[in-house]
Amino acid sequence: MKKTIAIIAVLLAFTLNAGAQVEVPKDTPQLEFALQLKVTLGEAYSCGETQHGRRTIIPITGGTFEGPNIKGTILNGGADYQLANAAGRTELEAIYCIRTDDGVNIHIRNRGIIANTKDAQGNQSFYFTCAPQFEAPSDSKYAWLNNSLFLCRPSFSQGFQGIVLNVWRVK
User: Fold this and answer.
1) CA-to-CA distance for 80 and 59, rounded, in angstroms?
2) What whole-number percentage of the chain has pLDDT above 90?
3) Are residues 133 and 95 in contact, defined by beta-carbon separation less than 8 angstroms?
4) SS3 of 142, please?
5) pLDDT tens track for 53-69
6) How far, in Å, CA of 155 to CA of 152, rounded?
7) Nearest to 150 by CA among 45, 52, 70
8) Sign of the alpha-carbon torsion through 55, 56, 62, 65
């Protein structure tokens, strides 16, 4: 009997605390604009439906980038590898290199999600966010890219044939 009462007391405590408000931590991360990439793209091609979903590859052919502490060109030869499922979700991984105006090459691996689905209320919802990871020479003035997390989202421009990515550093 004592065991049953103890179990009921624990369950009641969990139930009462389930609706409690969680205090937002005071050290909420902030975002700082880092750069904008204007990426030119080649013609996409597909491997068709694979065991993991529909695989599409989009060649990265060039472009430019600029931010408060960095500027240069996007090198030809990278690609955006996308894997889409029937539910409207696409995982992407873009792998490419950039070259700063002063000749420093930086590798980028940008992973993200595109979801064209419905939200909790059943309304159409579009989500497109990525997390680029930079690999800059440790002895360069761009080494700061190695030691932070970044987020990016696209913006779409009428006058540009490609994709524009705005990148923020998580502070």
Assistant:
1) 6
2) 72
3) no
4) coil
5) 999 999 999 999 999 99
6) 10
7) 70
8) negative
Two structure tokens written together for 152: 């990016």
| DSSP secondary structure code for residue 8 in this structure | H
Extract the tokens encoding 44: 């996409």
pLDDT one-digit tens code per residue, 138-147? 999 999 999 9
Q: Which amino acid is at 34?
A: A
Tell me which residue has tokens 């240069």: 72
Token pair of 64, please?
Answer: 């430019």
Region at 153 (left for phi over 0; alpha for psi -120 to 50; beta for the rest)? beta
**Distances in whole angstroms, Cα of residue 154 to Cα of each of 16, 22, 49, 162:** 42, 32, 26, 10
Query: Burial level of 95, CB count in 10 A (0-12/13-18/19+)?
Result: middle
